[in-house]
Amino acid sequence: MPSNPSDFIGAFMADYFAECDEHLGVIRRHLLTLETAVGDAAPAAPVVDELFRSFHSLKGISAMVELREAERLAHEMESCLRAIRAREIAVSAPTLDALVGGVHALEHVIAARRSGIEMPPIDAPLARLAEVSRAPETLEAESDTAGAAPGRDAGMPQSGRRWRVTFTPSADLVTRGIKVDTIRTRLSAVGHIESVAPRVTGSGGIAFDFFVTIENGDVFAAWRDDGIEAEEAAAAPPLAATPARAPAPRAFDAPIAPTNFVRVDLARLDDLMRLVGDLVVSRSRLEDALLRVERLAPSTEWRTLLEHSEGIERLLRDLREGVMRVRLVPVGEIFRRMPFVVRDLARDNGKRIQVSLAGQATEIDKFLIERMMDPVLHLVRNAISHGIEAPEERIAAGKPPDGTIRLAASTVGESVMLEVGDDGRGMDAAAIARRAREIGMDVPDGELDPRALLEVIASPGFSTRAAADRASGRGVGMAVVRDTIQELGGTLAVETELGKGTTFHIGLPLTLAITDALIVHVGDRVFAVPQSAVREVADVEQDLIRVIENNELIVHRGVALPIVRLARLFGLAEAPRARRHVIVVGAGSAAVGILVDRIAGQREIVVKTLNDPLTRVAGVSGATELGDGRLVLILEPVALTRKVRGRAAMRAAG
Amino acid sequence: METTPVSADARTFILFNVAGTTYAAPSRQVRHIEMIDEITPVPNAAAHIEGVVFSRGQVVPVVNLRVRFGFERAERDIRSRLLVVEAGGRTVGLLADEAREFVTIPEAAVHPPNASLSGVSGNYIEGIATLADRIVLLLDVQDVIGVAPPAAA
After folding, report:
1. Pick from A198, A190, A197, A180: which is nearest to A220 by CA?
2. Distance between CA atoms of A482 and A486, rounded to whole angstroms?
3. Nearest CA in chain B to A567
4. Nearest chain B Cα distance for residue A651, angstroms
C-alpha cells in the first residue's frame, strides 16, 4: 500500500502529464498531415485512426484524474474524428480550425491543471467542435461505410457480463510496471470498459473502479497478484456514457500493440550520467597512478596493467556514449509545435506562410531541447512579424504570395546545427545601424557585418519597431535568445540579405555533461577550455605582439588578430615568458586570441555547473575535477571575449 | 528571513572560531565539516569568496568568514576547517579558523543581539548565548551566505 496517498497521487499525476504530452505530440503531428488533406473526400485512414485513438486515450486518462474539462474536449474531438472517419463530414478548413482550437484549449486545460491555475473557459471551442461534427443532411444518405463499422462493433460490448474491477495501485506494483494505465490497456484488450472512477479507500489509499463488459471472467484470476479484484456487477450501467455515442467504436479500441519504448524519469538518467562522470574521473586517477609506478613495476607487468587501463577507457567511452544516446530525443519535438504557432500568428498578422521542416530526426540532449524551445519559438515569431511581408507586398516584389519559414536541423560532428530561416524582406543593416546610433548605442562606423548586426539586435532594449507588437518585442527577446544559447555552450549567427530573407544559425553541443577540453596554465592557475569553442591553437613570441591603442594584437595567417591575456582579465600574476600560446576562438571579424602561458594537453572532462550566485562570474561556465580532488574552472571563451569587446567599446566611448 | 524554530527548549549547534570569536551554527544546517585541501580561486568573484571546492561530488563555493566579518585574511593552517552548510536550497562552505565542538544550547541561555553588537556584525547574528564562561554568537546562516551587500573593495 502506498504509505502516503498524496505522494502517490502526485506520482500518478506526473504520469498523467507525461502521457498527455505524448498524445498531444502525436496529435499535433497528425493534425498537420490532416491539414494537407483539406478538401479531400477521404483522408488517409491511418492518420484519422491514430488521431481518434489519441483523443480516446486522452479522454480515458483525463477521466481517471477527474479533469473533466480535458475529458469533454477530448470527447468532442473524438466525436469529430469519428464523423470524419465515417465520412459523415469532410475535412474542411473550419473542421480543422475547430480541431486545432480544441487542441489548444486542451493543452491549456492540462497546463492549468499542471500549474494549479484557473481553468480557461472551454465553451467556445466545444461549441465550434460540436458544430463542425454535425453531419450535413446531404451526406446522410451516403452511409455505406458509416453504417458498416458501428454495425460490426455494436454487438461486441453487449455480449458478455458486466464486472466491477477494482485496481488498488501500490508502490510495489509500480516497481513491477503495473499502473492504472497497464490495467486499462489489459482490460480494453479483453473487453469493453464502460467507465472508470478513482476513489479514496477506507485506509486513505487510492483505488480505481472499472466497470467492464467482458465475455470470459476467468482472466481475472491470473491478475489477482497485480492488485486487481473483480466481482460481477449488476446489469444496469450506473453512469452510462451519452446514449448518443452508444455504438462504441471498437475498431479503434483495438489493443495498442506493445511498443518497445520505456519512459524514464530524466532524474534517473542524470544519476546515471553522474556515475559515468565519476567513473571517468576514477579512471584518469588510475592512469595517473599507473604512470607514476612505471619505473617500479616490471615492464611486462606494467604493460599488461596499462593495456587493461586502456581497455577500460575504451569501454568507458562506449558507456558514456550509450548513456548520452539514451538522453537524446529528436529535434522534431521542437519543430512540430511551430506550424501551429505559425498558423495562428500568420492569421493574426494577415500573412500567408508555409512551414518547411528538415532534419526532424536529428537527435539532441533532452535537457538542451527543453531549453531551446523558447528561443526557437522566438525566432519563428520574429520571422513572422518582422521578416515575412504581407501577400501584396510579396507579389509586388515578385515573390510568391506565400512566405516560407524553414526549420532545419543537422548533426555536424559533436554539435547540432539548427536553422531558422525565412524568405522575407531581410534585415536592413543600414536602418538598424541608424536606429542603434539614435538610441545612443556604440556602433562601429560603416556597414554592419552580420556579426555586428547580431550584436545590435541582441542588445537589450533594441527594437526596430516603435511599438512592440504582440508577437515579438524584438530587443529583449533576441538578447534572451542569444544568452540562452551561449549559456548552453552554443553559438548564434545570422545571415541576411535585403529583400531575400534572414536565417539564424544555431550551433549546440550534442550534450553537456562530458566534453573534451584543453587544459591550460596561466601563472600557477589551471583552466579548462572546451574544445568545441577552440578554433585553433598557435604559438606566439612575445616580440611579435603589437600594441595598438591599448589593444594587443598579433598577425596570424596574414590577418590582425586581437588578443586578450587571460592573466590580465582575471587579475593573475603572469610570469615573464618569451613564448606563449594563443587559443583562437570565434570566426571572422569576431575572432579573438586568448593568451595563456602553456597548454598542458587535451582531456575528457566532466562538467559541473557553477550556478551558485556567489560564484557566478562572466567567462566561467563551470568547474571540473581532473582526478586529484582539485577543481579546475571551465572557461566560456565567447563570454570572455565579449567582455573584452565591451571594455574596448567603453574605452573608445570614454 | 528564515527564523529557526524556537519550540524546543534546547537546540544543538556547531561551535567554531573566527578571529578569536566563537560562533555557533545550528547543527541541522551543517552538513559536514572538512579539513581543507585546496581551494580553487574564482577570478572576479566578490572579495569574501575564497573560491570553490569539490565536496562529496558537488562544486561548493567557499565563503571566507574572516573577510565576510570584516577581518584581515589569514593564512590557512592545520586547524582551519570548512563547514559545509545548507540553507535556502544552496550548499556553501564556510571557512573558519577552527571548528570542533558540538554543543546543546538551552533556549534560556540565548538573548537577542543588542544594538551595539549588531552595528559591528551586521544582520548575520541571530542571538547571543552565554555558556559557562564563554560568549557565543549564534549565526544566521542564511544571511551569511547571502549574496553580499556591495562590500567596499
Report:
1. A190
2. 6
3. B43
4. 20
Query: Edge-to-edge strands of the sheet including B49-55?
Result: B30-34, B81-87, B90-96, B58-64, B49-55
Q: Are residues A214 and A165 in the same domain?
A: yes
- Residues in chain A within 8 Å Cβ distance of B58: 608
Distances (CA, A) of A341 to A121, A379, A420: 20, 12, 14
The owner of cell 453504417 is: A147
Residue range A616-635, pLDDT digits in tens = 888 888 898 876 767 899 99
- Final residue of a domain: which of A329, A345, A370? A329
Interval A131-140 mean pLDDT? 62
Average pLDDT, chain A: 78
pLDDT band at residue B116 under the 50/70/90 scheme: low
CB-CB contact of A494 with A473 (8 Å)? no
- pLDDT tens digit string along A561-585? 888 888 888 888 877 888 889 999 8
CA distance A292 to chain B (A): 21
Give the minimum alpha-carbon distance from B55 to chain A in angstroms, rounded to a whole number: 9
B41 contacts A615? CB cut-off 8 A: no
A1 SS3 class: coil
Q: What is the pLDDT of residue B109?
A: 87
Does A92 share its domain with A199? no
B52 touches chain A (CB under 8 A): yes
CATH number of B10-144: 2.40.50.180
Q: Are A571 and A617 a contacting pair, CB within 8 Å?
A: no
pLDDT bracket for residue A242 (50, 70, 90): very low
Q: Sheet containing A491-497: which strands, arranged edge to edge?
A: A353-358, A403-412, A415-422, A501-509, A491-497
In chain A, the number of structural domains is 5
Query: Of the candidates A611, A437, A601, which has an alpha carbon nearest to the alpha carbon of residue A531?
Result: A601
Structural domain includes residue A341: yes
Distance CA(A51)–CA(B38), nearest Å, equals 60
Residue of A521, A631, A633, A647 to mutate for B, most B C-beta atoms under 10 A: A631
- Condensed to tens digits (0 to 9), the pLDDT of residues A70-112 reads 988 998 898 888 888 887 887 888 888 888 889 988 988 888 8
What is the residue extent of each domain of chain B?
Answer: 10-144
In this prediction, residue A583 carries a pLDDT of 92
The answer to whether A630 contacts B61, with C-beta atoms less than 8 Å apart, is: no
Cα gap A403→A397, rounded to integer Å? 12
How many CB atoms sit inside 10 A of residue B40's CB? 20
Where is pLDDT greater, at A646 or B153?
A646
Mean pLDDT along residues B12-25: 92
pLDDT at B118 over 80: no
CA A258 to chain centre: 26
Q: For residue A203, what pLDDT is reported? A: 66
Q: Which residues pair with A286 in a beta bridge?
A: none
Angle at A370 between CA A366 and CA A371, to 5 degrees: 120
pLDDT of residue A251: 39
Which of A116, A139, A155 finishes a domain?
A: A155
CB spacing of A614 vs B54 below 8 angstroms: no
| Residue for grid cell 574572516 | B66
| Residues of chain A contacting B, Cβ within 8 Å | 274, 278, 525, 569-572, 608-610, 612-615, 617-620, 622-623, 625, 629-633
Tell me if residue B89 falls in helix, strand or coil. coil
What ipTM describes this predicted complex? 0.85
Q: Is A123 helix (H, G, I), strand (E, B) or coil?
A: helix
Q: What does the alpha-carbon distance between residue A244 and residue B52 come to, in Å, rounded to a whole number?
A: 68
Query: Mean per-residue pLDDT for B77-87?
Result: 92
Beta carbons of B53 and A631 less than 8 Å apart: yes
Say whether both A576 and A643 belong to one domain.
yes
Report how far apart, in Å, the C-alpha atoms of A455 and of each of A161, A437, A494, A646 are. Answer: 71, 13, 10, 11
Instruction: Quickly tell me which residue has 593564512 as its cell.
Output: B75
